[in-house]
Amino acid sequence: MDGRGGNPADRATPRAVVQMQMLAYRQRTPDAQRFREALPVLGVDGLLAGNCRTCPARGKVSAKTGAAVGGDSLNDRLAVGDLTVAGYLDEGDGRFDTFSAGVNGASTPTADVAGVEVSRTTSP
Hints:
The protein is α+β, with helices and mostly antiparallel strands. 23% of the residues lie in helices and 33% in strands. The chain has four helices and three strands, in the order H-H-H-E-E-E-H. The protein has a three-stranded antiparallel sheet. The chain is globular.
């Protein structure tokens, strides 16, 4: 429906996202390289710049993140409709593995966005 995964009609397995949707399709098109280069790079730029700055995957992962998070005032926490990342891992020699990972229907322990962000960026 809306492409984010938050709508029940959007629910798809990571395998379906990688194999049957945009990622695998783009790998077979003439603009595959241009498409990968338009994505944020892990530990380098965009929304992925602050993550994995010293890990072996730094600079080798091009991916797009997405999130739909809202307040759960009744329980004083955040409700996670979806939190996703999908893209390519550069294996070298012109080989790129596709991946997709996501969480739907989760919640946080508190409504403090800053606390959630710190936990996410400092975890191994």
